[in-house]
Amino acid sequence: MDKQNCICHSMKTLLKEQKIISGVDMEFQFICLKKKMDTIPFRLYSTNNSKPFMAFYKCIATPFFRLKKLYEESCCAELSLLEAIDMEGNPADPFNDFYALRKTNTCIIVNLSCFCVIDPLPPELVNRPLPIIEPKC
C-alpha cells in the first residue's frame, strides 16, 4: 500500500470512529456517555519535517485539527482548526502545556498525500469544561 492510500485509509477510519463516538452511526443500548463527543483531534506530520503541520487563523497558529470531510477520490480532506486554550480559556501555546482544545469555524482543505503521520489525541480534550477557580481571599 502506498503512502497516499495509507493516509487516506487512516482518515477514512478516523471519520468512521468520529461518527461512532458521536452516536451518528449507531445508538447504544448499554453504554451511557455523559457527554456526546464528535471529534477525534489530531496532528499531521509531513514527510520532510518532524514538526507538525501548522495552520494559521486570527494571528494564532495551530497544529490541531478535526476531520470534517474526506474526498477519497482526490485524497484531500476538509479540516476544521482547533485552538489550544489554557485553564482560563485563553489561547495557549500548542507546544507547551495547554488545557483543552476549542472548536473554531475556520476550515482548510489539504492534500493528504503531503503527510505521512496522523497523531490522534484524546477526544476528551475538545471543548473540555474549564475548571472553576475559586478566588483567593
What features would you describe in this structure?
This protein is α+β, with helices and mostly antiparallel strands. It has one domain (3-125). It has one helix at 3-22, and strands at residues 42-46, 55-57, 60-62, 64-71, 76-85, 100-111, 115-120. The strands form three sheets. The chain has a three-stranded antiparallel sheet. The protein is globular, with a radius of gyration of 16 Å. It starts with a helix and ends in a 17-residue tail after the last strand. The model has no long low-confidence stretch (mean pLDDT 85).
Question: Notable features of this structure?
Answer:
1 helix, 137 residues, 7 strands, alpha+beta, three-stranded antiparallel sheet
**Considering DSSP H and I runs of 4 or more, what fraction of the residues is helical?**
10-25%
Spatial sequence of strands, sheet with the most strands: 4-5-6
Number of helices: 1
Quickly give the structural class: alpha+beta
Can I get a quick summary?
Helix content is about 15%, strand content about 35%. It has about 140 residues and is of the alpha+beta class.
